[in-house]
Structures are given as structure tokens and as C-alpha cells.
Amino acid sequence: MSSEIWQNKPLVLPWLKERWGYLLELQAQQRLPHALLINGPQGLGKACFALALANYMLCRSPQNGEPCGHCRSCELNNSGGHPDLFFLEPDEAGKPIKIDQIRELTEFIYSTAQQGGYRIVIIDPADSMNINAANALLKMLEEPGEDTLLMLLTHKLGQMLPTIKSRCQRVDMPPAPEEIAAQWVATQLECDTEEAEQLLTIAHHSPLQALAYKQDDLLGLRAKVLKGLADILKGRQTVLEIAQQLHKEDLELVLGWLYSWLVDIARTAGTGDEESALRHSDARNMLLAVARKAGTRKLYTLADQVQEARRDIMFRRNPNKQLLMEKILFEWYSLPR
């Protein structure tokens, strides 16, 4: 099952059970707020958690912390067409949520629930709203109407307007414990625990991202990046050639890998422990070679540059991606020299 499918399933994954119980207890005590800011790293299962909560809230006869599965609302949810559930997301991946989309939401929020219960909104990712859209949402957060629940999902809390954050109850999603995550990934991919653990290391301990690495060819992209870095060091290709190959890829992802590799290099160089300091076995030989020669100042300077470049991309500062990659890859080339 692909990670994308997981995002569209109403499931509470094992590491989020405590958060689920907490919100259901608030609901039982009639203390559930009208707006939740569901925060946590990508790939923890926030979207399927929000959908599960929406299904529970819309069910007319929930039982034992789960929707009944057979009332009219459950039937509508199962068919994927409940009229009182509104999804708001960018028109295209990586694009912002715009004010026109918020205007469509306004009509939904202030209409009568067709099934006579809750109206529920899921905004994912909420950090993708542009400034006009975010400001337009504020009025709804202040006066959402009765029996309304808005769930704003984010993995970039720093990009959310303070005025938005102050009007929501923040629900932080805990990281998945390593053993539980490894068992879950191994089960989903029908692989051994060792492979699951390595995938989780590559995916920064994000279980759904680990699935994507295996199923959506992210491992292929990672291999392409590793080969490019090795080719630069060995003089098989130039910095300009590799920058040309990579600048149109998902640079937030690529730079995240590079930063992790630099951390491995720094840890190995600092401790001299070549056995346990390296977490990324797929890059082992290259990382060891660089660790044996790289100067500390160059290493930390490049790590800072990579983090700054990631921030530029995350905060949509629209850097020239070709030039950005050229600069970083030139510093990579000079590390062991």
C-alpha cells in the first residue's frame, strides 16, 4: 500500500493512539475546541488521523471510540462523499492555498449541516496558505458557528501566522517509537526489520515516508544524488553538470539528505568511530572517505549553508535553484581538498 493511500485512509496509527484518546476524552466532556492545529513531522499519519476524527465526529452512533460504520453518515464517509466534510488543499502539490479557496470554504462553514450534525474542515497543509488566504481564515476561526470543527495540519509550524496559531488548540503529534515504527514498516512492506530500520533512518524516522522511499522510487532519486556527489569528488562529472541534473528535483528532500550525510561525516570525524558513527549505510564508503580528509571549519560551514538553503526553499523565498545547487556542490567538492 503506497504512502499516498495511507494519507487518505481514516486510521489512527499505533503511535498516535494516546493523542486519539485525549481528543475523544475532550469530546466526551464537551470540551473539544472548534479549531485544532495538528502539528508534527511529515509522515507520522496526521492526515489519516484527522480523517478518522472527522468520521468519528460525523457518525451518529459512535461506539467504543470508533464510528459505528452503518449509520447514514458512515455510509456517506465510506463512499467518500459526505456533504458535511470539506477538504482544503492546494490545487497542485507545492502551490499555495489561495483566497478564492477560502471563499469557497466560507460558504460551507456558514451553511446548515446537511446531516444535522457537525460540519468539519480539514486544511492540509495549513502552512501552504498565502497571506491573504490566512487572513481570510481568521474570521472563521473567531466565529466558526455551532457544531463546527476545523483541523489545520502542519509540519512547518514556524510558517503559520501567530494570529492563526493563537485561535487554535495545538495538538503535537509524538514521534513514532523506533521499535514500533520498524515493526509497522516491516509489516507494511513485507520486509525484514533490518531493512525497515534502514529505511526509517533514511526517512528521518518518518514511517509513511519510509514507505514512500520503497514504493515511490525515492530510493532511486537518493541513489542519483549519491552518485552525483561521488562523481564530483572523483572528477567524473563537474559541479555544473550535477547541479543541472539535480536543481529540478525536490531540493528540500535532497538538501535534507545532504545535511544528514554531513552530520554523519562530522560525527565520524569527531569521534574517530567509523563503525557506529555512520547511520547511512548506503553512503558509507563515500562518507568515510570525506570524514578522513575534511576540515572541521569547511564541514560546519557547508552544513550551515545547506540548512540556510533548506530554509529558503521551505519559506518559499524563491532562490535560483540552479545557482543554489552550484554553490553548495562546489563547497562539497572542496571538502576533502
Q: Mind explaining what this structure looks like?
A:
The protein is elongated. It starts with a helix and ends with a helix. The relative contact order is 0.10. Helix 5 (99-109) runs parallel beside helix 6 and helix 15 packs antiparallel against helix 16. The protein has two domains: 3-172, Rossmann fold (3-Layer(aba) Sandwich), CATH 3.40.50; 217-334, Zinc Finger, Delta Prime, domain 3 (Up-down Bundle), CATH 1.20.272. The protein is 54% helix and 7% strand. Helix 5 links the parallel strand 2 and strand 3. The protein has a five-stranded parallel β-sheet, sandwiched between helices. With 337 residues, it is α/β, with parallel strands linked by helices. It contains 16 helices and five strands.
Helix and strand topology:
Elements lengths: L2 H5 L9 H12 L6 E5 L6 H13 L13 H7 L6 E4 L10 H11 L9 E5 L7 H12 L5 E7 L7 H4 L3 E4 L5 H12 L3 H10 L4 H9 L2 H17 L4 H8 L4 H21 L12 H8 L4 H19 L6 H14 L3
Helix pairs in contact: 5-6, 8-9, 8-10, 9-10, 12-16, 13-14, 13-15, 15-16
Strand residue percentage: 5-15%
Number of domains: 2
Q: Helix tally? A: 16
CATH architecture tag of the largest domain: 3-Layer(aba) Sandwich
- CATH first level of the largest domain: Alpha Beta
- N→C terminal distance: 45 Å
- Total beta strands: 5
What strand order characterises the main sheet?
2-3-4-1-5
CATH topology of the largest domain: Rossmann fold
Radius of gyration, in Å, reads 23 Å
CATH level-four homologous superfamily name of the largest domain: P-loop containing nucleotide triphosphate hydrolases
Low-confidence stretches: none
Task: Summarize the biggest pleated sheet.
Answer: 5 strands, parallel
How would the global form be characterised? elongated
Helicity, as a percent range: 40-55%
What's the pLDDT, averaged over the residues? 91
**Structural class by secondary-structure content:** alpha/beta
Can you write the helix and strand succession as a string? HHEHHEHEHEHEHHHHHHHHH
